Amino acid sequence: MTSKRYKKLPEKTKELKAELIEKLIPELKKNCTTKFDESIDLSLQINNKQKKSEINLRTVVNLPSGSGKKIKIAVVCEDAKSQIAKDSGADIVGGDDFIEKIKSGEINFDKLICTPSMMIKLSKLGKVLGPKGLMPNPKLGTVTDDLKSAISNAKLGQVEIKNDKDGNIGLSLGKKSFSDDKVIKNYIAVLDTLEREKGNQTIKGDLIKSVFLTSTMGVSYKLKLPKSI
Known about the structure:
- The protein has helices at about 5, 20-30, 80-85, 95-105, 115-120, 125-130, 145-155, 180-200, and strands at about 40-45, 60, 75, 90-95, 110-115, 160, 170-175, 210-215, 220.
- The protein is of the alpha/beta class and about 230 residues long.
- The chain has 2 domains: about 15-65 and about 160-220, Ribulose 1,5 Bisphosphate Carboxylase/Oxygenase; about 75-155, Rossmann fold (3-Layer(aba) Sandwich).
- The chain has a 4-stranded antiparallel sheet with strand order 7-1-8-9, with helices on one face.
């Protein structure tokens, strides 16, 4: 059943012509009429169906304005590095005992970071961590000996960019309470990351097919890219 609040929102916004993000953010914020601080979300569809291969992007972007979300970070490391992890801001730190807890299904964290030497043991939990997108990955900076940097990046607003089988990518650019400028800086960081990733792929034509901007409980608007990617 459609709520009275939702019925008051603009209709058929997807049919409007695409606009630059600078123009759309104020409109989007007008639609954030709930009592909580709604997220401003980006939805992209990429041209992942190529003639000779299928494009699968998986990387991370450091949002300069942060994500506005508090995430719980867990670290699996040797005893000698546990204090470094704690001092760097990790919420949960452990070794073999912690791995056993994860194996039993005790997963109360949002991001998992692991040192290379402990990854051999953790890799056996692929069936537990994989479906939840929590398995550490060297490419994403979550398998590393530099725990301080990895934890700091995660806390400051590092998010993963990954497309599904249909080429869809979704991520948050921040909150309604963010200034327009902060949202735009995060958006530019995402586009710059995708542009770099395109250079690493064999792609015919543009990487991005369509882009939409929406809020948690609002309606979506078609975005006009500032440049061709």
